[in-house]
Amino acid sequence: MGAMQPQVTPVAWTLVVPLKPLRRAKSRLADAAGHEERQGLALAFAQDTVRAALACEAVSGVAVVTDDRRAARELAALGARVVPDAPADGLNAALAHGAAQVRGDAPGAAVAALNADLPALRPEELARVLHAASRFPRAFLRDAAGMGTTLLSALPGVELAPAFGGPSGARHLASGAVEITLSGVESVRQDVDTGADLTAALALGVGPFTARCGTAAPRC
User: Which fold has domain 13-212?
Assistant: First the structure.
């Protein structure tokens, strides 16, 4: 008989999702949509991300860090907690602040930073990633391009220490986070920064909010 595999205690994760003001979001989508359309797409991406995350069995809650009033209203309506971006000092400061707010209320919380631009996110794929993450104090998942990060996790008592932006995968690896190398979790990897990314997400199958924006000529 083979050796028994160690059992991993199920972890209930609180996700921290950062979202910059919609007027400044998704500038790299200029090749696919105009300024007003990009704002609508950014919100739709976040709505589909939050909706899928809240439907994930491994997720106990989602905290969205944003100062955008429209986004805050729409994402709160889906069931997310909204945390004002008090530091107003970029993505990593927002994530650290969101994690601190979550743990201020629940000191023993397991937290994971999740990108807000995962419109094809599948709850079951996210559950697989989070289950893998529960084996390590800190873990991360690279984006579809292989350079960035779409998810960074930290177990209770472990600092999140986010280093998102650019080639963040290498920075998270160097910081001691374990890389999650699962296959079949493309929906958790496929963030959207460019028109090509949007095409790839549409091919995977996006959520209802992004789908309403249209495909050939987005209208949100």
Answer: Spore Coat Polysaccharide Biosynthesis Protein SpsA; Chain A (3.90.550)
